[in-house]
Amino acid sequence: MSSPPISPLAQAVDRLCLRKGSRLKDLGRAPVDRISVRRFREALGLPPDPALGVPPMLVHHLLRPDVDVTVDVRPHETIDSVLDNPVNGGTEVSFNRALRLEETISGELVLADAYLREGKSGAMAVVVTESRYSDAQGAPVACVRSTMIYRGAKP
């Protein structure tokens, strides 16, 4: 008796498990400049003066200037071309310290975890990524941990 074939969803998760902890993307570098701080504060409805402080979430938007700062929009980046039907599974943010004006921040996107989970409508792939931000000395500044749930796989 042969075992049932492994589903494309399970195969995709197996491929991702081999890449856990690996860098998926270099997010680049950007300065925490007064113009960026002013624009971010204005977008959030805060007084625009950078001297009033750098909002912590600027770190996530600093390296993605094309993103609307008033909406948590996650690009549906396909980590595996087979995964399909993505749903936002949540976001956790941790800050190690406050941002400082005129410092340079760099970031990288890392695959933190991937696993299968059984849901009401069947198997789902859960993929967790971390956007890790650090200062010029390499010390961690913040981490944005994002979970995406894929409810299907392309044939």
Q: Determine the CATH topology of one domain.
A: Thiol Ester Dehydrase, Chain A
The quaternary organization reads as single chain
- Broad CATH class of one domain: Alpha Beta
Helical content stands at 10-25%
Q: Which structural class do you get from the secondary structure elements?
A: alpha+beta
Strand order of the largest sheet: 1-3-4-5-2
In round numbers, the mean pLDDT is 87
Structure report:
This protein is an alpha+beta fold. The chain has a domain at 8-30 and 76-153: Hotdog Thioesterase (Thiol Ester Dehydrase, Chain A, Roll), CATH 3.10.129.10. It has three helices and five strands. It has helices at 8-17, 34-43, 58-62; strands spanning 23-31, 83-95, 104-119, 122-134, 140-153. Strands 1-3-4-5-2 form a five-stranded antiparallel beta sheet. The longest helix has 10 residues, at 8-17.
What would the keywords be for this entry?
single chain; 5-stranded antiparallel sheet; elongated; 5 strands; alpha+beta; 155 residues
Blueprint of the fold:
Blueprint: H1 8-17, E1 23-31, H2 34-43, H3 58-62, E2 83-95, E3 104-119, E4 122-134, E5 140-153
